[in-house]
């Protein structure tokens, strides 16, 4: 069974993106998978001076979790037409050491949700750009944008409830699982 590490690009407790992420393990997919949430909340700000050896303990655990996953799913908001700083910081920590970084050849899918109308398009472009710089293998042929997210969730339960969006999310995660198989052929 494949293991998917889920990284949420918002630290907010009532985060819509966290609600989307919490829905993923409950989708009934054709292929069963295991899921692990990889927290980025305790990572220090990236500083090459402390990026020595295994780095700080929070970084070591975070990198280990990424290494242990067959693929990653990033679920992130957009801030000021771009990638949230906390997520960029986390991706930078997973991009070193240069030759053995946790993100190298890691299959990654990107999902984003916003109360706004444009579905995090600009944020996802920057996330993709950063991941490509790290040599991660970003799912190339499908995108998943969730706009007007407040109308598509049950905020009390913290879950995505909109039927159409659930269908697209299911299709996206299934494509990511297939991408993990396909990308093995790239090595
Ligand atoms: C500093 C800041 C900048 C934002 N910029 C954007 C933006 O460029 N595009 C967008 O769609 N939403 C933007 N928003 C609104 C976020 O999409 C909204 O706060 C969303 O709920 C954050 O995601 P979360 O619910 O997962 O925490 C911004 C919010 C903040 C706090």
Automatic annotation (TrEMBL):
<keyword id="KW-0560">Oxidoreductase</keyword>
<comment type="similarity">
    <text>Belongs to the azoreductase type 2 family.</text>
</comment>
<dbReference type="InterPro" id="IPR029039">
    <property type="entry name" value="Flavoprotein-like_sf"/>
</dbReference>
<dbReference type="GO" id="GO:0016491">
    <property type="term" value="F:oxidoreductase activity"/>
</dbReference>
<dbReference type="InterPro" id="IPR050712">
    <property type="entry name" value="NAD(P)H-dep_reductase"/>
</dbReference>
<protein>
    <submittedName>
        <fullName>NADPH-dependent FMN reductase</fullName>
        <ecNumber>1.-.-.-</ecNumber>
    </submittedName>
</protein>
<feature type="domain" description="NADPH-dependent FMN reductase-like">
    <location>
        <begin position="3"/>
        <end position="147"/>
    </location>
</feature>
<dbReference type="InterPro" id="IPR005025">
    <property type="entry name" value="FMN_Rdtase-like_dom"/>
</dbReference>
<dbReference type="Pfam" id="PF03358">
    <property type="entry name" value="FMN_red"/>
</dbReference>
